[in-house]
Amino acid sequence: MHPKLETLFEEAENRYLKPEELTVLSQYVESLPERLEVYRQIRDREIDIMQTVADRLTAQFPQESKETLERSIKNALLMLRYCAMAMLLNDEAFVKERLLGWLAQSIQTYKTQPIDSALYKLLNQQLAQSLTAKQINLLKPALVLAQTSLLKLEGASEPKS
User: Fold this and answer.
1) What is the C-alpha separation between 35 and 21, in angstroms, rounded?
2) Which InterPro entries does the annotation name (predicted)?
């Protein structure tokens, strides 16, 4: 659950919510049907979205091993799932707490920044074709956070010249 909402509920144990607190809660509740729809669309189209991305990535990196490309694609698939859940919860911290910690270790080990950078670009393009602009805007904060954080981690692990 969104940290602000959690705080609201915790603080309201001994009192009623203040008008501004009710506004925050109302905004989240009002956006929930749209968030649910985006989540469902991503879930239902995941295979098509990722297959298109995988096909294009393979064409861009014909010299890379199948295992390397598959690892990056699987990581991106997991990233998309976690970002969709963060969007549903309206909680970017979900990405930081649940995804970046363990995925960062995997990514740093394999040093796939050029592949991952291209993959994220392809994924973003495919999402833009699969979702409306409004739906993308709901998903974007979590997606940008995950992608930029993971690419920074990869870049930090490479030796400086």
Assistant:
1) 21
2) Globin-like_sf, Phycobilisome_asu/bsu, Phycobilisome_asu/bsu_sf
Tally the domains of the chain.
1
Distance CA 159, CA 161 (A): 6
Q: Which are the contacts of 77, defined by CB distance < 8 A and separation ≥ 6?
A: 46, 50
Q: Is the pLDDT of residue 84 over 80?
A: yes
- What pLDDT, on the 0 to 100 scale, is given for residue 1? 57
For 16-55, give one letter per residue: b (16+ CB within 10 A) or e: eeeeebeebbeebeeeeeebeebbebbeeeeeebbebbbe
| CATH code of the domain containing 45 | 1.10.490.20
11 falls within a domain: no
More reliable by pLDDT, 114 or 104: 114
Tell me the pLDDT tens digit for each residue of 25-48: 899 899 999 999 999 999 999 999
- Residues spanned by the domain of 106: 32-157
